[in-house]
Amino acid sequence: MTKSKTYVPIGLRKIGVYYPDLIITSKEIAEQSGIPENVIREKFGIGSIRKALPDENVSDMCVKAAKNCIQGILEPEDIELIIYHGSEFRDFNLYNCAAHIQYKLGAKHAISFQLSILCASSPLALQVAKSLMLTQPNLKNVLLVTGSRESDLVDFRNNRARAMFNFSDGAAACLLQRDYSENQLLETKMITDGSFATDVAVYGVGSVSYHTNTSIEKDFLKAEAAKANGNAVGYFGLDVADPLSMKERLDAVTMDNFFKVIIGAAEESGYSRKQIKFLAPIFMKSSILDKILEHLDMNSNQTYILKDFGHVQSADAYISLYEGLKINRIHEGDLVIMLGAGIGYTWAATAIKWGV
């Protein structure tokens, strides 16, 4: 006889968010970029973005979101694991942001680590956390944290980077609990196409640039020259090697891959596409989101559009879910899909059965 598996529910207990107070409007982006405001609003889908204060780093915003998430539920000392899955641009280069957040939050009993598939990291983090919680009974309270201030790396004067003008600052946190019978984490579906891996990068940082320029001194002198010419970001900014080529190749595959991961997450969880009731997506142009909703026979009341929040890296799906709950767009028994997509390129989705 084979032993039957014991069902262990892993539930999403709460989401916490943090939004910086400073708002940059579509008008301001238009003025700095030279692109008409109606194009910024209608084609790019940007109403406004958020901007962190100069001394407000990624770890600071993540801790604020984490405190909002666990308040009234548990103390930081009760957390057994913290997973940071936010921006790779954080307080310092090549450092352990997850451990920094653990220390600043006061979660002294928690182990911590970080993972990244860039803006698609939320579904991956949910899947990894669920898998660990199912195999390690001691993990009862797991906190996922993500934050971004990648807007620092975007120069509105750089037309090649116009697809990243929506980058916004902020953070989100998600508390998962073992044996929590509500908001069950179901299955995750992912697709990776590595042919896009080098299309977008901060090309001035890394071993390729280091060995090409032969010395840190030359890198420093180039940065100083960029500043002297009035270019505050210089070659340390996010850039796109060939925007036209990337767009043509991405347009050919992205819609199909969005459909595959959304429907795949639902079907692998035992549901059909018709049973999806709410989509919590990454920031995207309204034209793309409209096509996805149409394909799923859904309407705009079954999602939350992030036009006034911008693209907060992998926090987007959490923010969409958080804001959707506030305005009662998610109901008991709904099948919810959290959707992400990250340059490199990865498409990912996780299904959640909302309610008891």
Question: Summary?
Answer:
It is built from 11 helices and 13 strands. It is an alpha/beta fold and 356 residues long. α1 (26-33) packs across α2 (37-43).
Structural Rg: 20 Å
Mean pLDDT: 92
User: What is the N-to-C succession of helices and strands?
Assistant: EEHHEHEHEHEEEEHHEHHEHHEE
> Mind describing the biggest β-sheet?
5 strands, mixed
- The level of helicity is 25-40%
How much of the residues is beta strand, in percent? 15-25%
> How far do the termini sit from each other?
32 Å
Globular, elongated, flat, extended or rod-shaped: what is the shape? globular
Low-confidence region ranges: none
CATH superfamily of the domain at 10-181: Thiolase/Chalcone synthase
DSSP summary, beta strand count: 13
CATH topology of the domain at 10-181: Peroxisomal Thiolase, Chain A, domain 1
Number of helices: 11
Class from secondary-structure proportions: alpha/beta
CATH architecture of the domain at 10-181: 3-Layer(aba) Sandwich
If strands are numbered along the chain, what order do they take across the biggest sheet? 1-7-6-4-5
| CATH class division of the domain at 10-181 | Alpha Beta
Q: In terms of topology, how is this protein built?
A:
Elements: E1 10-18, E2 22-25, H1 26-33, H2 37-43, E3 48-51, H3 58-70, E4 81-84, H4 97-105, E5 111-114, H5 121-135, E6 141-148, E7 170-178, E8 184-192, E9 200-201, H6 207-213, H7 216-228, E10 239-240, H8 243-251, H9 254-268, E11 276-280, H10 286-295, H11 316-326, E12 335-342, E13 346-353
Parallel strand pairs: 4-5, 4-6, 11-12
Antiparallel strand pairs: 1-7, 2-3, 6-7, 8-13, 9-10, 12-13
